[in-house]
Design a protein that fits this description.
Elements: E1 6-8, H1 18-22, H2 25-28, E2 35-37, E3 60-62, E4 83-85, E5 104-106, E6 128-131, H3 143-151, E7 160-166, H4 169-173, E8 179-180, E9 183-187, H5 192-195, E10 196-205, E11 214-220, E12 241-248, E13 264-269, E14 278-287, H6 301-306, E15 314-318, E16 322-327, E17 330-333, E18 336-340
Parallel strand pairs: 1-2, 2-3, 3-4, 4-5, 5-6, 6-7
Antiparallel strand pairs: 7-12, 8-14, 9-13, 10-12, 10-14, 11-13, 11-16, 15-16, 17-18
Pfam families: LRR_1
InterPro entries: Leu-rich_rpt, LRR_dom_sf
């Protein structure tokens, strides 16, 4: 068993008690293990093998569809963990503090989860988070300043990020404030392409906003255009879900559309079928860490791995006056779809 890389014990029949399996787990949980899937094993508090916390080479951990309220072991020693999946843990009330190596967190359909805590502290590689179709996270606004700080000068600045969250707490705190509808304009300051690292895009709307591949259009507009037509977004009972994207300038510099001379950009959202799902839309510039100019992606091993996990987008149109990009509705890790929401 010393060379075991993947272990899957999934959806055990209720008649099979997990403690009976645990007697053999010590020999299975070897330090060579890279992927562990214990989804659907009816695990309650105190029944998750604590040895998991010592698997120093573990990269993917799936504990979905279990009955625990929180993880009763630390993830701090899982220094190579890239993906943590906790979908459909309906009794989960608290997210664990994540190791700094984490790339992707999926915790959809977690009905009892209503606060986010400080799970994301020091997670400079975290690029995909989904907390939807469960409880409404009432303190989600705490995530926004942490996201913006994380993006400044860290590894993710040359890539992309995607966050899906139930409720609209982040949308209420977003600066500049969201405007109503699926279009908004952003004025660009002098030297914006050097002083900032990318666009942070926030969308709020009905549950359906995450059902579609999201298409974002960017068009060069004259800086003197009248912005008074932009109506401020006001929260309503239909605002059920928030999406946040980060699109780095590094991922756009190769396009025909890109020009550092632009003074303003008009952003538009959505395919025709999805437009009615949007109620608010906003775009902000993410400041570059002081003293750092535009850089190419590093060639370290971790940076190479990260490029396989960061959410990718497809370029649908690329001409001098307009650029259209599309984020797929499925989460990706390399060429593998992780989960569809």
């Amino acid at each position: 068993m010393g060379k075991l890389n993947t272990l899957e014990i999934r959806y055990c029949h209720k008649g099979l008690q997990f403690p009976e399996i645990r007697s053999n787990m010590e020999s299975l949980l070897t330090h060579s293990l890279r992927k562990l899937d214990l989804s659907g094993c009816h695990l309650k508090d105190g029944e998750i093998p604590s040895d998991i916390g010592e698997l120093s080479n573990l990269q993917e951990l799936n504990l979905s569809c279990n009955n625990f309220t929180r993880l009763d072991f630390s993830l701090s020693q899982l220094t190579r963990l890239k993906i943590l999946t906790l979908n459909s843990c309906k009794r989960l009330v608290e997210l664990p503090k994540l190791p700094s190596s984490i790339f992707i967190l999926l915790a959809d359909f977690c009905e009892s989860l209503t606060t986010v805590g400080d799970f994301y502290t020091n997670c400079k590689w975290l690029c995909q988070v989904s907390l939807v179709r469960g409880g409404v996270v009432t303190n989600g606004r705490r995530l926004l300043p942490s996201i913006q700080a994380m993006l400044e000068g860290n590894a993710i600045k040359n890539h992309s990020m995607l966050l899906k969250l139930e409720g609209h707490e982040i949308a209420k705190e977003f600066k500049p404030p969201l405007v109503s509808g699926s279009r908004c304009r952003l004025k660009l300051p002098e030297n914006w392409s050097n002083d900032f690292s990318g666009f942070l895009i926030c969308v709020v709307g009905t549950y359906e906003i995450s059902h579609y591949s999201q298409r974002i259009s960017m068009e060069h507009v004259l800086s003197g255009m009248d912005y008074e037509d932009d109506v401020a977004w006001e929260e309503s009972d239909n605002d059920k879900r928030t999406l946040v994207w980060y699109v780095s300038f590094a991922s756009l510099r190769h396009t025909t559309w890109w020009s550092s001379t632009y003074k303003a950009v008009l952003f538009s959202l959505g395919l025709d079928a999805a437009i009615q799902s949007f109620s608010g839309f906003g775009v902000a510039l993410v400041a570059r860490k002081s003293g750092s100019g535009p850089t190419e992606a590093s060639t370290t091993q971790q940076e190479y791995e990260f490029s396989h996990y960061t959410p990718s987008f497809n370029i649908v149109q690329d001409v001098q006056y307009a650029l259209k990009i599309e984020f797929p509705s499925k989460y990706k890790a390399g060429n593998e779809s992780l989960y569809e929401v």
